[in-house]
Amino acid sequence: MIILGWGKKAKQLAFIGIEKCENCKNWCRFDLYKMSRRITLYFVPVAKWGKTYYAVCSTCEAGFEISEPQAQELLKKSVHLPDASETERLWLNLMGVEQWAREAGRKEFGASGAEVRQVLRDQFDINQYAEQWRGRYTDDEIAYALPLFRKYLEDNDLPE
Question: What is the residue-level pLDDT of the chain in tens, covering all 160 positions?
């Protein structure tokens, strides 16, 4: 009896940063995936073809196809990014601050999410936040996430 198989296989290659997803409009973690078609004989891959690369949103799981040169460039950049899980944890903490401010602003003043983000943007002090998070996160994680949080606050095209 011969056992032959075929299909697609996706492999996660790297954490490529926190970005805004064009599909769900959320700012979240993106990972680089390589997808290829393959044939297996007795569960051992014997041929691969049709290699494609995708940047995948961790929130809505939308995949955005990218070229091989773009994928190689993202891989080179990913080496210099801070630890993925800790950076994502810091990002979620920052999102928690923003969520708390939105809820408080809505309850206290009837403010919209955009109005609360405007107040946060006006009062956002990277140095103050850096001091607050120092000790819990590395300097690399803080230096990466806080400027992105500033960029997030300046984004006017967000889901409410």
Answer: 778 787 888 899 999 999 999 999 999 999 999 999 887 877 777 787 889 999 999 999 999 999 999 999 999 999 999 989 999 999 988 888 888 887 877 787 787 777 887 788 787 777 787 888 888 888 899 889 988 988 888 887 766 5
Helix (H) or strand (E) holding 38: strand 27-41
Residue 70 maps to a domain: yes
Q: Domain containing 93: what range? A: 84-154
User: Are 18 and 71 members of one domain?
Assistant: yes
DSSP string, 83-142: PHHHHHHHHHHHHHHHHHHHHHHHHHH---HHHHHHHHHHH--HHHHHHHHBTTB-HHHH
| pTM higher than 0.85 | no
Specify whether 37 is located in the same domain as 67: yes
